[in-house]
Amino acid sequence: MATVGSFGPRLSAGLELTLTATGETNATTPGTVVLLMISLWLATVAAVAWAFAQKASWGTRIKRAVLAGLPAVILQGAWLAYARSVDARTPFSGVAEYHGVTRTVEQGIGRVGAWLVPSPVLPAWAVPLAVVLGGAVFWLVHQTLRDRAPERAPSQRWLAVLLTFMGIYAVTLVFSRTFVGGAIEFDDRILSPLYLCGGAAVGTMIGLEWAKWGKPGRRATALATLAWVAAALMVDAGQVQEMRAQGYGYEGADWQATDFSQWLKTNGNRYEIWSNDPAAIYFLTGRPARMLPMTLAPDSVKRFEATFKKRPALLVQFHDAYRESADGSVLARDFGLTKVQEFEYGRAWADTVTH
To answer: How does pLDDT run across 323-343, given as a tens digit for each residue?
Structure first.
């Protein structure tokens, strides 16, 4: 959900950075262009959804939806061409820079497959089963929407709303991952709206088709549903048990029960801490930490050095950065800092001369 919510700000920042870098900005241009682009994006999504929802054959619906989305494709292509022509390195300026569309879709399909066949990670042997279950869901969609009986209309409208939302959400995720944030993970958290709506959609379709299937079909459906729920509960129970035993993320035993963690709480307690991952410092020590500067620009480094050396301070760099920042090893070298700790996840330097 964070991806969708951050779409506007990311787009705004990307456009403004590009226009500023190429000398084509003024007091009103960035805001005007950003507002225009966001409006066009929302209008395109609405137009595609409206075109697809109109009564017609499936082929006609798809054709209308493609034509409705074509202006956005043309605009995106023009933006890519312009960004490449001025050598801009901003969001939306390229496709392959963030692992490309293929890798993006592949990861998303893998996680959805692990939901269809309940498992923490979809094993190779379960891929055919996931394909069969996915095909069964698409067949169920076709069967449910084909019958236009008046008494089914309310449930079919509800189903159409769910499927439309799922389609728009999936496209937005792929677009954001491909053009904006390569670090966006298609994990269960970000895909949870698809899981929730998918479950509601399958339940709606089974309810609509239940009376048509006869006793053998109903028994098979009930057994399959019970088997899926039981497998999902077993996976969930295993994950909960593992989290209770080992912790999760920063609270995991591999973070908390380390020599570096103990050193920070004892010898490192007298330092003010600067890091590329302040959250990790807080979870390890319960103390706040400050973020390293974002760049190695001379003026930024000079101001940071003056602040850093005012009091005893520790510079901690983790291998897996919280976000992009200036290289801690370069700052330590320029400031004449001494390496005081080397640990599995990174290094720490202190000013042992000034203080």
So the answer is: 778 889 999 999 999 999 888
